[in-house]
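Colleagues,

Please find the record for the two-part complex below.
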Amino acid sequence: MANHAEAISLKQWVRRELFFGQSFGVYLKSLITPFNIVAAVILCVGLPIAFIRFTQGLEATTNLSNDAPWGLWIGFDVLCGVALAAGGFVLASAVHLFGLKDYRPLVRPAILTGFLGYFFVVVGLCFDLGRPWRLPYPMLVSYGVTSVMFLVGWHVALYLTVQFLEFCPAVFEWLHWNKLRKWVAWITIGATVFGVILSTLHQSALGALFLLAPGKVHPLWYSPYIPVLFFTSAVAAGMSMVIFESMLSHRIFKSRTGDHDPAQLDRVLLGLGKGASIVLLTYFGLKWIALAHGQHWNLLLTKYGLWWLVEVFGFVLLPCLLYARAVRIQSVTLVRVASVVTVLGICLNRLNVSLITFRWDQSNRYFPHWMEIAVTITIVTVGLLTFRWIVNRMPVLSDHADYQIEDH
Amino acid sequence: MRIIRLKIIKRIGDAGMQTLHEYMMETKATEYILAVIFLATFIVFWRFVRVERK
């Protein structure tokens, strides 16, 4: 905290920046809200389960087995988490690489969502893998260069670092660390380019994981094109998540949004909706080409086939058309509705691939243990609390008054 | 058109295929047809969503 902080003592700074200028007691009292009470109950249930998982293993807390080694923590926490976190690289590349400066107000929230999304993906992964102290093994101790897991591990680690660097300007503005802020602003373009490369590889590598299980994933969802399908759908999910998150942020954190022009924000959301509709149409086309490649037309009239049609028409084509209609009639509300359907649809796709149709030929199917569901809800809750804590303090939804914006 | 049809019939015969369905399965023609339909739809869709801002 350079010259700015020299003027005030650390105690004053803590009181102003961390407790919103209130005393610690008043701040604690202000925390008693309905949302916080629900969050506290969730944490009271989830944290002891986390303790049980790390002390007694997977058997005590999950329904996982040798036949179903990947459960809800991989299917939802990792696969859905990564797809929904794609908004960071989509928005960062749009603004920093393609020069679409109109979208700049959404970049920081998108990067923060992406960073926290990836961070809690790693937390979820730790629950599944256990022994978190072994996380650095693929980087430092035991290389497995022929494994897709090695690729995924490196990508997550590097991309998490890149997203942290991309978000650092907001942290340093908050701390008034001017020199460091200038330095990270200077490397923004390089970090964005590196982030786009890593995201492209990483989103598709998660799909590539399922190339290892051709007999286990249902033929309608399995395809050699699955890495391309994962990447394309992640772009749509990322854009939709940014729209969805901006809708919530501008209601919940109204006091933090600054003097954004609502008309400008609407234009930006309509632009994102247009992009998302085009990406969703591409994804829809690729799904059918992948089906044709596998020549599984005969499976379309089975139980799983009808489910596949529900996913493709109800959660890919429908939001695509909703977005297109919204752009035609300039309706931001319809764009928001379409974003919710898209987010649900991409989550459904990831759950279909990893859980619902995984080992579809077995009679004894996996269903998550209630403790698995509780841990997932706990991770999402902690993610929301962290997001709120950061947004309430750092310049995320609006620019810091002391800093010029256009210098990176 | 006649030359193309003859070529297809010759190829079906060479590969021991009996029907157009078998030919399409063998050559993955469905994928190409779908790709062309997709491209045409994409162009129409692109024009549909390209509206001027109010």
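Chain A has a mean pLDDT of 89.

Comments are welcome before we finalize the supplementary table.
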